[in-house]
Specification:
Blueprint (H helix, E strand, L loop, with lengths): L4 H10 L6 E3 L2 H12 L9 E5 L26 H8 L3 E6 L33 H8 L5 E6 L5 H7 L2 E4 L19 E6 L2 H11 L28 E4 L10 H16 L3 E4 L8 H16 L19 H12 L2 H14 L4 H22 L5 E5 L15 H6 L5 H6 L3 E8 L5 E7 L5 H13 L2
Parallel strand pairs: 2-3, 2-4, 7-8, 7-9
Antiparallel strand pairs: 1-3, 4-6, 5-6, 5-10, 9-11, 10-11
Helix pairs in contact: 4-5, 6-14, 8-10, 8-11
The structure holds glutamine.
Length: 449
């Protein structure tokens, strides 16, 4: 079923209080949709919401920040170019945690997005607007970005499908960098087929991104009903403590159903994954502190310092105004772990553990085709519940960050609800460039619901 532009505008107005979109510019949209009407391709007639940290020419790229509220993109990200060439229509920009730092979309200068399933709860983050747009039926597809879980976790919280591709599978040209060695753009959709469809369009080598690879792009949709996944690994040692009982129950039920379809479930061990939150919050903040140095009120960002007395004063007044508290916290943490004296103790060490985490996965994939992990230990939490407790917020990433650290692909697929009616997401993880395999198992799981 395809959603019409009229349906979108109607639903968008009806759901304004959910605060899903940061920009819907009706005159831009009129021109753009007229142009796209003449492009024939796999996405003709499809509506797509874009996370507001991916550049779309002529629209703001606010990154959910006061700093960039006035910034209009002068160019298209490569993924946008590909969507346009495939005939897709971009409806506007979706809300996010500022600079994609967060797990709830509460850290946006545009205010919190509400979860369409239960508006008292967060939609997850940082791609909360993108996941909510799909869940609320505003659009057919959305793009999110995933540095430590920001596609999968909000997809899990909103009951939709979110795929984080292998690092290098999709061009990062035109996304505002948060942590360049971890960031990937990926699809958020209602169904697994749609996820395959959109990945097909955006995947592949891009001359403008040296980290994109020219490894052959598989026929994801064509192979989606293949049965190449025989053995599935489950790291039961990670599923002991802190898991919400209903999350555990839905995961266990899915595993039982998969066994009945003939899949072999094998217990695996990923011993270094217990360090992944620590490693992630060292590496991601280090990279962020460097990437965000460009926002100084000269090269990028609003200039608020009218009476600065020195150049340092000038930068700090601009940055004090422009960045929110979470972004400042990350810049300080990242600067600290990179500073001389602490570099070896934190940053260099985290890089070494990064390798061990990657090795854990490689060892596991010698025995199994894919791995299952819950997307998040809990269902969507209440708005305000974690906002003043950064550690509690960071811990909601416990099951998602490790595959960004290892550069691997993962997809979150809905596996039913809690007793309160909140969606539960289950991740299917795969080895490098094995998007086809994880899509196949995700599809099989989807059809068991
Ligand atoms: N929640 C994680 C963080 O705050 C992940 C963010 C992301 O993937 N962009 O860093």
């Amino acid at each position: 079923m395809t959603i019409s532009l009229q349906d979108f505008l109607k639903k968008y107005n009806e759901t304004r209080d959910l605060n899903i979109m940061t920009t819907v510019d009706e005159s831009w949209l009129k021109n753009h949709s007229a142009q796209q009407a003449s492009v024939q391709g796999a996405l003709s007639g499809k509506l797509i919401a874009i996370k507001d940290n991916i550049n779309v020419k002529g629209l703001p790229n606010s990154c959910g920040s006061n700093f960039l509220k006035n910034y209009i993109s002068p160019y298209d990200a490569t993924v946008i170019e590909r969507i346009k060439n495939a005939g897709g229509t971009i409806v506007g920009k979706a809300n996010l945690d500022e600079f994609a730092m967060g797990s709830s979309t509460e850290y946006s200068a545009f205010g919190t997005t509400k979860n369409p399933i239960d508006p008292e709860r967060v939609p997850g983050g940082s791609s909360g607007g993108s996941a909510a747009a799909v869940a609320a039926g505003l659009v057919d597809y959305a793009l999110g970005s995933d540095t430590g879980g920001s596609i999968r976790q909000p997809a899990g919280f909103c009951g939709v499908v979110g795929l984080k591709p292998t690092y290098g599978r999709v061009s990062r040209y035109g996304i505002t960098a948060f942590a360049s060695s971890l960031d990937q753009i990926g699809p958020i959709t209602k169904t697994v087929d749609q996820s395959a469809e959109l990945l097909q369009i955006i995947a592949g080598k891009d001359e403008k991104d040296a980290t994109s690879t020219d490894i052959n792009v598989d026929d994801y949709l064509g192979k989606i009903n293949d049965d190449s996944v025989k053995t599935i690994g489950v790291p039961y040692h990670l599923l002991q403590e802190g898991l919400h009982p209903d999350v555990k129950a839905r995961v266990d039920e899915t595993i039982e159903k998969l066994k009945k379809t003939g899949k072999v479930i094998q217990e695996i061990s990923l011993p270094h994954l217990s360090y992944s939150i620590a490693v992630y919050y060292i590496l991601a903040t280090a990279e962020a502190s460097s990437n965000l140095a460009r926002f100084d009120g000269v090269r990028y960002g609003v200039r608020t310092s009218q009476n600065a007395e020195s150049i340092d004063d000038f930068y700090s007044v601009n940055r004090e105004y422009g960045f929110g508290a979470e972004v400042k916290r990350r810049i300080m943490l990242g600067t600290y772990v990179l500073s001389s004296g602490y570099y070896d103790a934190y940053y260099a060490r985290a890089q070494k553990v990064r390798r061990l985490i990657y090795d854990d996965f490689q060892k596991a994939y010698k025995d199994v085709d894919t791995i299952l992990l819950p997307t998040c230990p809990t269902p969507a939490f209440k708005i305000g519940e974690h906002v003043n407790n950064p550690m509690a917020m960071y811990l909601s990433d416990i099951f998602t960050v490790s595959i960004n650290i290892a550069g691997l692909p993962g997809i979150s697929v809905p596996v039913g609800n809690t007793s309160e009616g909140l969606p539960v997401g289950l991740q299917v993880l795969g080895n490098l460039y094995e998007e086809s395999k994880i899509l196949q198992l995700a599809k099989a799981i989807e059809s068991l619901q």
